[in-house]
Amino acid sequence: MWVGQKAAYERFEGDRGDLAVHCRRGQLLDCRAKAATASQPSSDRNRSRMEDTWVGWINEEQKKRLGLCIYRQPYLSKAETANTALPCSNMFWKAPTAWAWKSLLGPADIPPSTYFIPTLTTILLHNDLPDVLPFPPLDDFCKTLYAYVLHTHVFEWRQTICMLNPTGLLSSPLSLAPQNIGESLQERREWLVSCLKNWDTFYGNDNQADPTNRNPKNSSGILLFHLAMLALHLNFSDLHMVTGRSGSEADIKLAKQSLRNWLQKERVQKIFDCNTRMLNAAHDAITAGDAQRSGFELAICLFMGGLTSWAISRFGSPVRISMLGASRQYAGGQNFDQYQSNPELCTESSFDPRDELNGQVSNARDGLRSLKCFRLAVAFGDILELHSGPD
Fold first, then answer.
1. Which residues pair with 85 in a beta bridge?
2. In sequence order, which residues have a C-beta less than 8 Å from that of residue 10 and are 6 or more positions away?
3. For this protein, what is any one GO molecular function term (predicted)?
4. Which terminal CB of the chain, N or C, has fewer other CB atoms within 10 Å?
């Protein structure tokens, strides 16, 4: 997938099943203490008992980290993480010798680590139980891991929307409910927004950083946070379809109509705001030199952000698009609803919002092309090139 070739992607689709099987059979996500077995003599007679303990711990920690890397892929069930523990602090992992490791460890047998499920429960239920569930400090890897886990919840919610009202038509059985998605699904979206804000509050703004991490800003997690917020307001499948994913003109026509249906009313402003914040975060990450560390997340966010800006300019409600510029000009971009009651505040000198949207597409394209080490990003940039500039 990274090289941007269809054959490589098809190979990846076949190989990922092997990863899941290896993860299950190797019990990589099961971090419970294993039953003691007869001790085997060390193959290296010059190695001390402390060194044997250190090497054994390294092997177990490697399995744990490998299992969580595989779990980030969308084909392992949540139930498989019941006994999963998070990686220990990098301070222990980077210890160069058994003696250094034991010096950091003190009287304990192994470094401390947090269970996966309780931390996830804290993120999901903090608003309901604010004084019961703590937020443990996490390193960059774990912060990003939980951002991916929240994406699985957003994906499940979006799949339900696609089944019940795939095109946002007013003739849908849900058309009498708020925003054409039904009251219960609306409540679940608000709950997901709260969960994402919990993650952002405690793990997204350089908070709870690992003291050994010299670069505490977690660009990958921040980008995933903004991408998830955008996914709660816009169906990404429509964006993929309208760019010709299936190659069917009928599918493209249906996707265009679906985008027109959803890009109405106050949703245009919400989508525009979410998308602008995501694109700004992506460009900030590139400027900070995080292209190597967060290349995949950067490629996805820049691509989806560019497509979203293009879709708003082409399929959004013209009245709402014109108000984007007005709300931006009014008092430096204050409350959009305030402008609606004072439309005369928009003067003739207001900039055309479509110019800004087209600029976002071009900037996203240039950002993708700057990630030259990733063929996938370059391919995404070529797609945005076809959609940049005025019609």
1. 115
2. none
3. metal ion binding
4. C
Ramachandran assignment for 31, one of left (phi > 0), alpha (psi -120 to 50 degrees), beta (any other): alpha
pTM of the model: 0.83
Across 343-370, b (16+ Cβ under 10 Å) vs e yields: eeebeeeeeebbebbbebbbbbbbbbbb
Highest mean pLDDT of the ranges 1-15, 40-54, 99-113, 339-353: 99-113
**Exposure b/e, 19-45, CB count within 10 A at least 16 = b:** bbeebbeeebbbbeeeeeeeeeeeeee
359/309 Cα distance (integer angstroms): 9
Tokens representing 288 are 């900070």
Q: Which residue has the tokens 């009313």?
A: 265
Rounded Cα distance between 24 and 3, Å, is 28
212-248 pLDDT, tens digit each: 444 457 899 999 999 999 999 998 988 988 888 777 8
CB atoms within 10 A of CB 340: 12
Per-residue burial over 197-213, b if 16 or more Cβ lie within 10 Å, else e, is: ebbbebbbeeebbbeee
